Structures are given as C-alpha cells and as structure tokens.
Amino acid sequence: MLYRSLFCLLLALTALPALVAADSDYDWTKAAAEAREREQPIALLITGPDCGYCERLHREFLDNPERGGDLQRGAITREMSRDTGGKVTDFDGERIRTRLFLARYDIFATPTLLFLSPEGQLLAPALVGFNGAQPYEALVAIRLALARDNLASGFRPTRSMLASGE
C-alpha cells in the first residue's frame, strides 16, 4: 500500500512540469512569429470546460482530417479555454491577465473561433457555436478565405464592419 501511494505521488510530481509547460504555451509572440513566417492568419479556438459543443467540434471537425484539415493547413491553429487563469504573453510581448486578453474579443459563448492577424487583430467575423461538421466546414472555409485575403492585403476590418458582415 505504501509503495502504491509513493508511486502515485511520484507520477503526480513528474506530471507537474507538463502542466507548467502547457500553461506557458500561451505565448502569442511565438504564434505571431509563425504566422508571419508562413504568411497565414492565426485561428484561435476558445473553448470552455464541460462544453459539449466544444467536444463535438473536436470529434466531428477538428479531429477529422477530411473536415478540419483545410483550417489546420491554412492557418496557425491554437486553442485556449476561456477559464484559463494566470497570465499570457500578448502579441506585443507584454504579460497580461488571460481574462483581459480574451475580453478584447468579446467572447460570450463557446466554442468561438477567431481569425487573427499576427498583431492580434480580427481578420474575419468570429464563428460562434457549432451545429454540425458540414455547415461548420463551409463557414470556416468562407471565414478563412476572408482572413487570408485581409492578411495578404494588409486590410484590417473594424469591429463594426465585422458585425455587419462587410
């Protein structure tokens, strides 16, 4: 019994660095550098804990290469939980609270897929929710094409343009 308890404790302690490393993945300067190098937008998926639609999105779209492959080939893809605590490194290199980082994008539901420039600016309207792989795939294709066009041209739509669908 003692050996089993010590073994479990040892496993827990060896897992600790992995948890810290996962938290440090939110360095948006790295994603921005990769986006600039590959000349691609950043596709940031915001999820939530116990989000059934987020799980369906993964299962039916993201984990299916036939469906989600275009997104993963056409953008720098990252995922972040809206409940991630602590701080992140912002696109300009400054450390800021995660809630402030997410607040700038007006996240009100999960899943939400954002299309961002290497500077963190929205390039296309956010995709909120998930209603099945087929309609989502079509919406992603449209938003990704718009984001790629806006990135290539240097055009950055305003929030009102994105809200009105211009």
Outline the structure in words:
- The chain is built from seven helices and six strands; from the N terminus they run H-H-E-H-H-E-E-E-H-E-E-H-H.
- With 166 residues, the chain is an alpha+beta fold.
- 52% of the residues lie in helices and 15% in strands.
| Number of helices in the DSSP assignment | 7
How many DSSP-defined strands? 6
Largest sheet: 4 strands, mixed
Mean pLDDT: 86
Q: Flag low-confidence runs.
A: 2-24
Q: What would the principal axes of the Cα set say about the shape?
A: globular
Strand order of the largest sheet: 2-1-5-6
Secondary-structure element string: HHEHHEEEHEEHH
What value does the Rg take, in angstroms? 18 Å
What is the subunit arrangement here? single chain
Features:
two-stranded antiparallel sheet; single chain; alpha+beta; four-stranded mixed beta sheet
Summarize this, please?
The chain is α+β, with helices and mostly antiparallel strands.
Task: Furnish the topology, listing elements before pairings.
Blueprint: H1 2-23, H2 28-38, E1 42-47, H3 52-62, H4 65-74, E2 76-81, E3 87-89, E4 95-97, H5 98-103, E5 112-116, E6 127-128, H6 133-153, H7 159-164
Parallel strand pairs: 1-2
Antiparallel strand pairs: 1-5, 3-4, 5-6
Helix pairs in contact: 4-6
